[in-house]
Each structure stands twice: as C-alpha cells, then as structure tokens.
C-alpha cells in the first residue's frame, strides 16, 4: 500500500491534535508540559489515554475543586479600607 499525500496529512493532523490535547491535560494536571506535548506528538493515541488516566501531580492547580475561596485572607478592598482609617 502506497502512502499518499492525504494519508500523511491525516496522520499529521491526528498527531498534532493529540499533542495539543496532551499539552492541555498536562497543564491542568500539573505534569511536565513539554514532555507530554512531545509524547503526544510522537506516540499520539498511546500517550493520550495514559495521561488521561494519570492522577494530578502533587500540588497541581487542578487538584482543588473550583470555586473554593479562602475566606480568611482579606481582599485588596478590605486592606485598602483598613489603611483609610483614622490617622
């Protein structure tokens, strides 16, 4: 079977799509972005499910549920209002 331009183009598009998705997932999970982008480009459909199944890295931003706010820390408005007090 001969490789045609269309089949090579399809392979490159799939590899680039996997690399982009691996990069996004690595950012979300706190893993090495460059490594996983390259693995997604070279290993395509093998790297993608591996990264999906990996747990978030220790201390990753994606680990904490979204919407949690630390109420103990004052906002910039609260800090500014304290400075505007009696002199």
Question: How would you characterize the overall build of this protein?
Answer:
- This protein has 87 residues and is mainly alpha-helical.
- The protein has a domain at 1-54.
- It contains four helices and no strands.
- Helix 1 runs antiparallel to helix 2 (33-43).
- The model is unreliable at 63-69 (pLDDT under 50).
List keywords for this structure.
4 helices; 0% strand; 87 residues; mainly alpha
Compute the CA-based radius of gyration: 22 Å
Largest sheet: none
Distance between the termini: 85 Å
Anisotropy-based shape: elongated
- Helix share of residues? 55-70%
Roughly what is the average pLDDT, rounded to an integer? 79
- Counting helices, strands and paired strands, the structural category is mainly alpha
Task: Provide the low-confidence segments as ranges.
Answer: 63-69
Order of helices and strands: HHHH
The count of β-strands is: 0
- SS element count, helices: 4
- Assembly of the depicted chains: single chain
Proportion of β residues?
under 5%
Please write out the topology:
Layout: H1 5-29, H2 33-43, H3 47-53, H4 76-83
Helix pairs in contact: 1-2, 1-3
Task: Give a short overview.
With 87 residues, the protein is mostly helical. It has a domain at 1-54.
